[in-house]
Amino acid sequence: MSIETIIGDPVRLLLGDKISDAYKQDIYVPKVADVHAVALAKTTDEVRKLVNYAIEQDLKIIARGAGTGVAGAQVPIHGNELIIDVSQMKQIVGFDEATMTLTVEPGVLLSEIQEYVESRGYFYPPDPGSKHSTIGGNVATNAGGMRAVKYGTTRDYVRAIEVVLPTGETVELGSLNIKSSSGYDLKNLLIGSEGTLGIITQIKLKVLPLPKYKQSVLLAFDSVTSATDGVLTILANGIDPTALELFERGTIVYSETFTKQLLPLQTGEAYVLMTLDGNEMATVTSRADVVKQLLQSKAIAVLALDVEQEKLAWKLRDHILVALMEFTEFEMLDEVVPINRFAEMISYTKELQGKHGISVINFGHAGDGNIHTVLMREGLDQETWIAKREALLTDLYEKVAALGGLPSAEHGIGIIKKSYFEKMIHPVELNLMRKVKNAIDPDNRLNPGKLL
Amino acid sequence: MSIETIIGDPVRLLLGDKISDAYKQDIYVPKVADVHAVALAKTTDEVRKLVNYAIEQDLKIIARGAGTGVAGAQVPIHGNELIIDVSQMKQIVGFDEATMTLTVEPGVLLSEIQEYVESRGYFYPPDPGSKHSTIGGNVATNAGGMRAVKYGTTRDYVRAIEVVLPTGETVELGSLNIKSSSGYDLKNLLIGSEGTLGIITQIKLKVLPLPKYKQSVLLAFDSVTSATDGVLTILANGIDPTALELFERGTIVYSETFTKQLLPLQTGEAYVLMTLDGNEMATVTSRADVVKQLLQSKAIAVLALDVEQEKLAWKLRDHILVALMEFTEFEMLDEVVPINRFAEMISYTKELQGKHGISVINFGHAGDGNIHTVLMREGLDQETWIAKREALLTDLYEKVAALGGLPSAEHGIGIIKKSYFEKMIHPVELNLMRKVKNAIDPDNRLNPGKLL
């Protein structure tokens, strides 16, 4: 079957010059290859036919959503890739309140999901920074975000996925059942596999009742180490925060400049911004009080935020990335370490800035050990930047590994972290991943050269 | 290397007549084969050597813990199996409070883990009925239990596992990191794989701070349908119960007779026993009040239990199985359906008892859709029992499948549910499982004939 027969609508089939560079690069990975075609599928059946077409024509396949990935996972590198763009598969298929299950196509945006369920009194906990990412991409990378400390990551909210396999077969993995001891967990194998094992065509998500109350608390500390000590104290005392963000003074100033607004606390070198949620106001307030008591000697200041302050503080936190993009050239990492090594990791990044001559600032999800280390390019020419960056990253990921961490908490390995990943992971485990990939995709058709 | 060299201590190496029948059967699956040897390993290194020995001698391998499994997964069926019994690998290796991680060997009992962490103010949420099962077996079956409705199953508390692969290689899967988008999730693939992909030799478990307060509520309903309606109401209102058990009058009478004590409510055909936990007394009490308000019109009676009543009610619930074993011959199933199909499933089991002439009673974890249907043998001779049981199970699992359910919530497929499992699962998914098994264990050495 010709690709024009599969995708009858010419608007949904891009060939040759009609394929923009946006399909060939991402924010950090430049264009290195062209692609065979871009097909904007509308249905699972079209995806299935496209996979069969790729088999017949011996093409490689890249599945793609909104293209907000930052690890190069959706960037073509061979030249013979068929990009299956699922951003037009954007129906919210149904919402079953009895099982609290939302069924969506992979092109639905995270922001659309959040709005849809919140307007009905429900709550989809995963909260990655990029609200314009698609849920398909979120599942393919096991996206994390702010609320992982209490609620977990995307993985924890996927009840089932419909997948088109590299054989062209379609299968649903997972179910609406809450427990299972019925065979291998293939659903979790697919989640986070970055499009290398199957193409996700439908997703059944678990949602929760929306908590009725929330309260944010801002804490200022004289150092990152004191701040992370504070974080461990909070976690050890059953406070169960929804979000527990840490940022250096050096990161939030970008947001302050960008928004022309100031964080409610101005003293200190590092901040912790925490939200508590719950269905009883008394619980939320009493936990905020416990935090105050626990941390009044460790922190410079502890401030329970009123509604306006809460909005402002979270706006500033959310705008760190946008502000950085406005004012500077940089690369943002997403390494993760066990929560008790967070301070040590951040402190090591500071050593690296002296050693390699690249300024480094950090913010991150302190409650779950995920650091966003930001390497500031500061006008370095391309050659110097590439050399310094690579030397710094080699040191940095060596430290991450030494601390028992991983190169990617939520963005994926893609191609940008592949060489580091291969060094950090145990060869037996890497070999096992390759065996699994080869068993499911023996022709290496799906997103070849990514992740593995 | 000879097996006597690997296991130098003759007490830990059982051969020929020294191998008791306990190694060759379980509560439901009779002895059908002998075994090559039983080796009680003490270390990962011994397990590794035993696997290499099995490779050299071309033996099959069954990993085994306390032998409390009820699906035949640890029963030899070929005659040339080497049983690696890990019940002597029973060290609690360490407890790291900073990351709330307990490291244990696979032979540690669930009850030992619960006691160890609770005495330190922590909490291991999974709570399968058999407290004398080993944690290794819990991981191998993804055991569930009472508290899954709030806290999830074993899978959700495994940070990492050390595994000896069928190649004899040792690898750690997972990590102490809370987030990961760093490669395939092989840890979850191994969890619940019933010893068919690797032998678990060490486990790092996540624990939580022990909730400070709890309150149980007992509700009586005039029918199972009203009771499951009540359950759905509780779940939809953000009550977040720790446990939400449902039992028919017909099951709890066995416990009452066995313990010679009565449930605090005596009216009604079905009961819901719920526990709430939390760190603020006010929250726990107010949720109990909300449950009362929500359900006073649906239930015959709602009783917030005092400490003595709570102990008694849970004792009666916990003793259902023991009481059944004391008074009758039966087979207990562990099917699971989406929570909104729970009533329909139970009601269907009642139809089956008329159709097939086997009495059926039910209890189960209503909050997570997991039903323990109990088939009462009631003196049927072996031939009649086998025929009637099989006819009933064929109908029952067909219904489970039609409702979107699964044959096993927490016990595993083993051999006892294999033929039903194969019919219920989509052939593409089954084939995918076989591909994965073949990729990791191409010689089909680990627990062959089980699950797949």
From TrEMBL, chains A, B:
Pfam families listed in its UniProt record: FAD-oxidase_C (PF02913), FAD_binding_4 (PF01565)
InterPro entries found in the cross-reference section: FAD-bd_oxidored_4_C, FAD-bd_PCMH, FAD-bd_PCMH-like_sf, FAD-bd_PCMH_sub2, FAD-linked_Oxase-like_C, FAD-linked_OxidoTrans_Type4, Oxid_FAD_bind_N, Vanillyl_alc_oxidase_C-sub2
One term of GO molecular function: FAD binding
Domain FAD-binding PCMH-type: 28-210
Transmembrane region(s): none
Record keywords: FAD, Flavoprotein, Oxidoreductase
Cofactor(s), by name: FAD
Signal peptide: none
Family matches, as SUPFAM superfamilies: FAD-binding/transporter-associated domain-like (SSF56176), FAD-linked oxidases, C-terminal domain (SSF55103)
Name of the protein in question: FAD-binding oxidoreductase
Record organism: Oceanobacillus chungangensis
Phylogenetic classification of the source organism: Bacteria, Bacillati, Bacillota, Bacilli, Bacillales
